[in-house]
Design a protein that fits this description.
- With 113 residues, the protein is mostly helical.
- Helix content is 65%, strand content 4%.
- The chain has a two-stranded antiparallel sheet.
Length: 113
């Protein structure tokens, strides 16, 4: 299940939803919280994590560096320390281009019918 952050009014998402969105275990998200200062989801009084859109954007940065680009945790930490804004812009551009590609593919599929 992919979260559609643009088409929902919800402010918070559960760790299960976020883990499914990235196709990772919830335990990996909890571990990344200990390794990356930018990952600090809100916790209820009972300790349940509540992720905001900003939290999910930050996880996207870490996911991109570690899972897609293959960096070590230390390498990803270093890049985020040196150029968080630049990496954030890169990921946003990549996501935008992927959406455009998907739209073009859908149009192509319609024309092929």
């Amino acid at each position: 299940m992919k979260l559609d952050l643009n088409n929902t009014e919800r402010m918070f998402f559960s760790i299960k939803e976020v883990a499914e969105h990235f196709d990772v275990n919830a335990s990996l998200l909890r571990y990344w919280e200990t390794q990356f200062d930018i990952l600090k989801p809100r916790k209820t009084e009972t300790g349940i994590r509540q992720y905001t859109r900003e939290d999910i954007e930050n996880i996207t940065l870490v996911y991109n560096l570690v899972k897609e680009r293959g960096l070590t945790l230390e390498g990803a930490q270093q890049i985020l320390k040196q150029n968080l804004d630049g990496e954030s812009r890169k990921v946003q551009v990549i996501q935008h281009l992927e959406r455009i590609r998907n739209e073009l593919k859908a149009l192509e599929d319609e024309l092929d019918l």
